[in-house]
From TrEMBL:
Name of this chain's protein: VOC domain-containing protein
Gene3D superfamilies: 2,3-Dihydroxybiphenyl 1,2-Dioxygenase, domain 1
Pfam families: Glyoxalase_6 (PF18029)
Top-level taxon: Bacteria
UniProt domain VOC: residue ranges: 1-115
Phylogenetic classification of the source organism: Bacteria, Bacillati, Actinomycetota, Actinomycetes, Streptosporangiales
Length: 115
């Protein structure tokens, strides 16, 4: 998955810490997080967008819509939220489900933690 951002390196470091994965590339306009060689998993790419606008969540008419979000399964929702906030996420003001928590990463992209 590739995520557009105004600051690829910072966002890669955030997700690397959140997910306990290494940053495997960190250039001025592109960064990447993925598991070490030989370990199964997903790759996150962060690409610089010159005219990036933070998404508004939940969406509102005329606001920048989030074009994608990550769903991350966790064993302990409260502990995972606490960890995400310690990493730099912000708990979203609107929470539509009891067993899911919506957070915003440092560049405003929503992501969900769920049991």
């Amino acid at each position: 998955m590739t995520i557009g951002t105004s600051r690829p390196g910072e966002l890669a470091r955030f997700y690397a810490r959140l997910l306990d994965l290494p940053v495997t590339a960190d250039e001025s306009e592109w960064a990447q997080v993925r598991p070490p060689e030989g370990v199964a998993g997903f790759t996150l790419n962060f690409e610089y967008e010159r005219h990036y606008a933070r998404p508004v969540w939940p969406s509102v008419p005329g606001g920048q819509t989030a074009s994608q979000h990550l769903d991350i399964q966790v064993d302990d929702l409260a502990a995972a939220v606490e960890w995400a906030v310690a990493c730099g996420a912000v708990l979203a003001g609107f929470q539509p489900q009891d067993d899911v928590r919506v957070l915003l990463d440092p560049d405003g992209h929503p992501f969900c933690l769920f049991l």
